[in-house]
Amino acid sequence: LGFIIDDSLSIIDEQDSDKLVKDAIKELSDEDRAQMDDNGWNHKTIKSAMGLAKAEGFDAHDYISTITPGCRDEEFKRIAANVWASYTLKCRDNNGMDFDDILVLCDKMLKREPYMAEELSYRFRYIHLDEYQDTNTVQMSIMDTIAKQHDIPNIFVVGDEKQCIYGFRGANNKVILQFRDRYKNVIQLD
Questions:
Q1: 3-class SS at 34?
Q2: Contact, 138 vs 104, CB < 8 A?
Q3: I want to staple 41 with a disulfide (CB 3.0 to 4.6 A). Which of 27, 36, 71, 103 is the partner?
Q4: Strand ranges inside the chain, DSSP E
Q5: Measured between alpha carbons, how far is 190 from 184 in angstroms, rounded to an integer?
Q6: How wide is the angle at C-alpha 160 spanned by C-alphas 157 and 162, nearest 5°?
């Protein structure tokens, strides 16, 4: 993602994130802003699309690759991708990242640099996750990458798939339902 990660990195909160998305929308062409108005798309719609994609582990570049020419949502995704790219630059200019960006960057770094996952698994021999039904795909990937470094994955999760309430924020019920597929020797307590 091209961020300088040091002591000056700041975490962009919701209010600042909203402002940066609105600023990015202002930089769109008049035609794209008119199309947003015509379709009732606003900064919340765009930000929601970005958040759901980030929950899957996508950055702005990955999101662009999901645009299928001629599909029903092509124009929305194209505009959202342009806003997202501008938003990312604005975050970078402020040496900041939002929480979702931190997760995506962490996931990409762990996959690109396996020694990091190994080091984290050494530091965190046991992983305990509560409310696991509200985990999204990128969170699962981070946890699995670290846990699978152990000879015997030392991961303990608590959750109830019937209580998944954060789907609107990208929680993926399949994460908890497929836990036994990813960890074959799991012991289930009821």
A1: helix
A2: yes
A3: 36
A4: 10-12, 96-98, 127-129, 155-157
A5: 18
A6: 155
